[in-house]
């Protein structure tokens, strides 16, 4: 191919790997030769030569949640800069599927894995798989012995409740945010909720902690029915995510409950839908671009390293509270 294009083999390689330091004219010449010769990259040969597969895995609960689909997009963008293709595994938060991701034979077919471990424990992650290139995301991974990229859910929840308290709300309920014996997202957000109420001199009312079997709109609607049927309904509801909050908003509208006049609503994730609900939803926005990029950076840093053991790295990405009409009103 280099001979056909009249350039060096290195220049052809630079074009194939989309390196920026190639002139437009040279790139066009090489691409014309590629087309003329019908060249297709031999990925198997490339993997043998580099001892890398060219693939990484992203194992997440499911793409039907806008949070994970947006995260996947950012991971794919960052991975493309390193010529990696991202394979997506939907675990559905299943212990068996999460174990298969990190300990099954398929783990040897990728250069690294980005995993949200919702069901498996630290012991499974410590004895994970041979090549050691594992990055964990989410709150439940806080004690695992692997690189970990997360956000501060406790601080974020505390900020949401403090905002509601500033709006004069005192009967603040939750949906899907409850205490747990596992340091998962629900537990960590509950800690922030508890801290803010404690500082305000308000205790947690257990009847205001509405469970959610899943974190989808129908579960939010069912929780709204439960909370609004209480003898003293809440004047604010903090939902585990925006999908639950969307369900709560829809059900309150059906019941003739004014938001935010009667009840203020807030969520987490700030997905696109949140800007277009009626009314627009106050939500915590995570820096998913930074989260995805950092995961890929950590995998790249460990790929191919043979210079001894390196302790795991923990990274906390930023967040911000986006205040909209569902808590602050039109003013």
From TrEMBL:
Organism: Promicromonospora sukumoe
SUPFAM superfamilies with a match to the protein in the record: lambda repressor-like DNA-binding domains, Periplasmic binding protein-like I
Pfam families per record: LacI (PF00356), Peripla_BP_3 (PF13377)
Residue intervals of the HTH lacI-type domain: 1-50
CDD domains: HTH_LacI (cd01392), PBP1_LacI_sugar_binding-like (cd06267)
Designated name of the protein: DNA-binding LacI/PurR family transcriptional regulator
Keywords: DNA-binding, Transcription, Transcription regulation
Superkingdom: Bacteria
Lineage: Bacteria, Bacillati, Actinomycetota, Actinomycetes, Micrococcales
Keyword Zinc appears in the UniProt entry: no
Single GO molecular function: transcription cis-regulatory region binding
